[in-house]
Amino acid sequence: MRGRxxxxxxxxxxxxxxxxxxxxxxxxxxxxxxxxNIDEAKKTVALIKDAGHExxxxxxxxSKYDEVxxxxxxxxxxxxxxxxxxxxxxxxxxxxxxxxLPLKYWQLQIDVNLTAPFVLSQLxxxxxxxxxxxxxxxxSSLSAFLGLEFTSGYVTxxxxxxxxxxxxxxxxxxxxxxxxAVAPGFVETEMIDGYFNMIDKxxxxxxxxxxxxxxxxxxxxxxxxEVAEVVAFLARPEAKAITGQVIIVDAGAxxxxxxxxxxxx
Length: 265
Known about the structure:
- By secondary structure, the protein is α/β, with parallel strands linked by helices.
- It has a single domain, classed as NAD(P)-binding Rossmann-like Domain (Rossmann fold, 3-Layer(aba) Sandwich), CATH 3.40.50.
- Helix content is 48%, strand content 14%.
- It contains 9 helices and 7 strands; from the N terminus they run E-H-E-H-E-H-E-H-E-H-H-E-H-H-H-E.
- Strand 4 (84-87), helix 4 and strand 5 form a beta-alpha-beta unit.
């Protein structure tokens, strides 16, 4: 990966930070995309530079085309042509009833989780063609396959990203560009705690995070670093025969129905 430039959206923390650190460790120059938390973005870049690698941070609200284009242009000018794109930035807005979710929040999730990966792919694909190397990795979710309570917008967009992944894989195959998706299950981040706190409140459950953990065959949640390992492999030259695929990283959670959460109440 040495000399390659990787753009990681939402690269400032959580899964995105782990991906940024892993790609940098393989020699890639990393453009760390972030929306508003500049302190976290600075921390990610500092961790990469302290390890002797190259990275810069670039701000953009990925739901806004002009900001996305500016971020890509700035990253290209600073680091070089972008040949690895990781569409990690995501948004989930929950509601106890489908009638409680305003249309603007449904649309916002589409803009962030589905439209932005398409737009970003458009903006960097010529770099990949010109450089003779391209990897696009989209972050989907286990919920795209199994569903998830109270998150219709999130689940829908994460299912849509799988369709986009397969369509782009076909469109770009002749250029040697691979397009794949990684679908994590529950990952140990701030988001998982927020979701299970919501489950406790809306379903009247106590300690749902601990109860659900016991149902997972491996009795553990996924770490950000484990997701990053899979993303990094897909970004490497050795993964050139893998395209249009979805790799689930869930510690075995897909072997149980997610709707079992309701049985906890």
